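The record is kept unedited without comment:

——
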Amino acid sequence: MTGQPQAVHTRLPVPSRIDAASGEARRAQLTVQRSARRVTLHPKYGRGPVAVDVRYLWTGAPDAPTVVVQGGISADRDVVTSPAAATPGWWQGLVGEGRAIDLRQWRVLAIDWLESAELDAPSVSSEDQADAIAALLGELGIHRVQAFVGASYGAMVALAFAARHPQAVARLVLLAGAHRPHPLATAQRSVQRNIVRLGQASGRVEEALALARQLAMTTYRGSEEFARRFDAPPVQVDGRFRFPVEDYLEQAGRRFVQRFDAGRFLALSESIDLHEVRPEAVTVPATLIGFASDRLVPLTDLCELQRRLGGGGTLAVLDSPYGHDAFLKETEQLAPLLRDALCA
């Protein structure tokens, strides 16, 4: 790696519609940094210090308090994008002007997850991700963030962050993530990783990665959604019966292969299953949000986490047909909870 990348400062485009003068002034002040900073980390499974470039997005009102927002292993730093972008951010429905995480009130910071190859280590831990965010905060001159909002793997990293850097965060907001993976979820992910390894060994990596993603989709979504969407008889195609759900799964697999590679998938999937944080070590107050239909992070784990948290916490349980992916789908239900949590 060569010299440290320089941060690029841009401004969000002003919509063509003319609003009130005060609204225009606030909108013109929103800024975006989408860049990278080089930091030094000591990976949990590494052999010593390593320099790594942390790719980040930092967007919102420039003088507003910062909120860290991180999602699942397939999420990236683009939590939100500009209106002119071809693809919306992965949490665009909840992050933006006037939305639950209001960019006129908060400045959102997110990173691309690190993988083991970048750390010159056999595995990457949730602690490594937490330390990368902490080091980035130091580089950006941020001494303390208002909140760390984490969903799925992001919630795991948020817990590791609070346990290791308690003075750097005022509050946690944890969606569909706990202090440890459930053993059944680990079993399911282990099968997915073995499918990908078999593909690597046989020279059919993309097929294997797509198949692993198809299997993962059956764990991300709820039984109710599958029953509603795919309750139709099979049809005969090319000498075999084809079931309605297969089109959905194959499309999900193709999309995943277009933006993910096998090495990154293996590293981050394994990182979930290596995660473990002692709840008593988390002294930061927390808001927990779980979903009754989530089969990856059962409510029993969230109840245990809430009971054992060193800093105390509340637990809200939402009904949704979308299972673990409800944190991506239930925008209307989540918006008031996020607003309240950030202002607590």
